[in-house]
Amino acid sequence: MQTDYHRWAYQFAGLLMGDANSPMLSEELGQYFGETDVTIARQFARVTFFSDNRADVPRLHLPTLIVLCHEDVVALLK
User: Rounded to two decimals, what is the model's pTM?
Assistant: First the structure.
């Protein structure tokens, strides 16, 4: 991501969408990612990929729905 953001964007889109199953959707998502401001995308990625708030869950005071997907490719990368 640091060296070639646009290449990363298309590869990550393929990973998320499953290239073999939906190449058109993967291409569309890659284009969307590629049009995103690189600085903002890097900041968002840093927060998304390097944060872990599971320890905060017991401190929640409001009813909260937590959705966990067992096939989340991003979560599996951690």
Answer: 0.69
